[in-house]
Amino acid sequence: MTLTTITFYLLLFCGSVWVVAVFLLAIGLGRLRRVSSASLPSVSVLVAARNEEQNILKCLKALSEQNYPSDLREYIIINDNSTDRTAEIIEEFINTTPGFRLLQAEPAPAGVAPKKHTLLTGINASTGDIILTTDADCQPPHGWLRSMTGCFKPDTDAVVGHSPLHEIGLISSLVHFDGFINAVISAGTLGLGKASSSVGRNFAYLRTAFNKVGGFGSGLTTASGDDDLLLQRIVKNGGNAVFNIDPRSFVPALGQQTLRGWWQMKRRHYSAGKRYNPALIAIGIFLYAFNPLLIITAIMAAYGSYDPGTIAAVWGAKACIDGLALSRGARLLREHDWLLSWFLAEIVSPLIFTILLPLSMVGKVKWKDRTL
Questions:
Q1: Superfamily per CATH, domain 36-275
Q2: pTM over 0.90
Q3: Residue-wise pLDDT tens digits, 23-72
Q4: Number of other residues whose CB lies within 10 A of the CB of residue 48
Q5: Are the C-beta atoms of residues 116 and 227 closer than 8 Å to each other?
Q6: Are 27 and 192 in contact (CB under 8 A)?
Q7: Is 340 exposed, middle or buried (0-12, 13-18, 19+ CB in 10 A)?
């Protein structure tokens, strides 16, 4: 059997894994339903802020306008060793607005990720039954707290929310669409009763569930993973997690405005993949391999090693199954202008994914003026 034949069979096998995986995502998306409870549990909202003087005030104002009983909510803002006016702005705001507390995080111990250390500072000082996190560059809508806490039924341990990225800057479409794809993956897997990813910009979990799994555990050392790794730990230990598709819970956030910033963000997010559970890693290997195989066989087809029509058919099958899942996700997440981005992504994403994922597994990650 020639190398050309082996490569083609590998393409078909990995492509089959891709089609099955994305088709299952589409099924999971179809199972999602809006959940609403009349109960009003106590909730602690945590915001870790580092050098956010341009954004923090808008976030604080949005939190102060939540339609949730003041005696059942607390806002804990943790200053993560900011070097700008972030702490000063927070202090000025909370001096005139009740319900907020400002904590100063100590520098993270050696080997501990600063973001997780900062969040632990807030978690240890909080009192709510539910811990709900968002970021300093987010502006949660008026009904966010009610919608997120309303998803907690007696058997619910965690709720993952959607956080669409604003379209600002030259790479806005790339950033926005990338965030949309991540939300579709998160929602689809939760619809199947599994857990893959989450976003700390909109993530809630029971304090008891957090304590049951030992908090962040070994994930304390990774630059990212205060969301997806924790979600996976909760579900792996028998917890139940749901995805909130109520538009009132969608938390808009600022996207990266430069290609370099987006690249660093993706490297930080992908770096957590090394600590995913073995089953996800195994599936991920085949899904990843499909992308370089697409590129390799397309190049070989251009030089006559394969029938171009056959390789185009494989690429087209991928695009069709991707489109099925994304169309379902678009309806659930109120994403209207996704078709053009989807078309462009089908062309360029195999190359980006092929390059970015290996790079995220090596070296140090730079984020917020720190090397992690």
A1: Spore Coat Polysaccharide Biosynthesis Protein SpsA; Chain A (3.90.550.10)
A2: yes
A3: 999 999 999 999 888 889 999 999 999 999 999 999 999 999 999 999 99
A4: 27
A5: no
A6: yes
A7: exposed
